[in-house]
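Page 42, continued from yesterday. The earlier attempt failed because a stray header line got pasted into the input along with the sequence. Redoing it now with the clean sequence only.
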Amino acid sequence: MTAMSWSCVPAECQGASSGLPAIWTARTRVSASKGAAVNIFDVRIYTIRRRRDRRRPFEVRWRAAGRTRSRSFTTRGLADSYRAELIRAARHGLEFSPGTGEPARWAGRNLAAVSWQEHAAAYAAMKWPHAAAHTRAGIADALATITPALTKPATRKPAPAVLRTALYQHAFSPAQPGTGPAAAAALDWAQRHSLPLQELDDPKVIRLALEALTLRLDGARAAATTITRKRAVFYNALGYAAELGLLASNPLDRIPWKRPRASGAVDPRLAASPAQVLAILTEVTRIRPELTAFFGCLYYAALRPAEAVALRRDDCELPERGWGRLTLSASSPRSAHAWTGNGTPHEQRGLKLRPEGTIRAVPIPRSSPGSSARTSTLTALARTGGCSAPPAAGSCTKAATAAPGTPPAPPSSARN
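This time it went through. Structure tokens are written below.
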């Protein structure tokens, strides 16, 4: 029979017997009938010792299978991560190898061999099936921004634009595995020089990545919203590594960070007046009449472009007089073919930031009596049945037929 118990051993209790403070110990009593010479479940893990005169000053010491073991690291973060893995293995009752002193299960995996790029590609592939096209592209963009900063110093580094494009279009896009010669060379360089994932436990390495995501390719500072979005991707990728046991915890949790502030104010000098909008729509009608109602919809009904594209004739109430109403139930955002996964630039989805199946009713301004533009708009809608086919044809709004100076829809119809 084998019985196992965990206990926390104070430093003062362990110091007398081992000379080292131990805080975690797992003990197993093995019956004499088994005649076991080595107890593979007898594990004691000591606190990290710092030796300032060593090239790798942070030493993790533990006792397993009857022998004292040690492993040294260059930073405390790496030592903490390794020690946490040992504690986790002991807590789960894993057997420790008499040969290596590490959990026997580790023999089949080499944590140090997993690079940041390999993990980032695995994270992008994990997110791909359930992410929207824009989200997929955003994840690839963030990872392609961070990855060049997490490489070892080396000569013959590809040009920044070439490396970033190769990472964005191929390494972090499961749908685009094929590459040209330049992209293949850049990806090969990145794979060979990518830092081991465990080095991201070092705050200095993490800060290199954080600095990289604040910059555009030309070296200028990125917008506050871009920085926040890319940091969120980085945080989630590191959280996925912790979930898989590749990191003890998310290193970003230990790094102070002040979120950049983005101004949501709109410069009134840049907002078009009703008269200016009417002039714009008149010119659009002259050049591309099939787009007049589409652009009018964005102004008078405050629709997102993807919502206007997804409108159908049956979604519209268009009385002869008075206010009408649009019933929004879907959106059709446009993205590159590579990110939609359906071979077209559009992806059919529900309303943005709302649960699936949600609808939104939008009142639209009244038309001017006897407007011929309204008649032509309804004729186009009856012929096309909607505005999903590019170019975006007329939608159901009366925007194209609104009288000069007609105000936009009231606050209740504002986009939210």
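Notes: DSSP finds 13 helices and nine strands in the chain.
Reminder to self: strip header lines before submitting.
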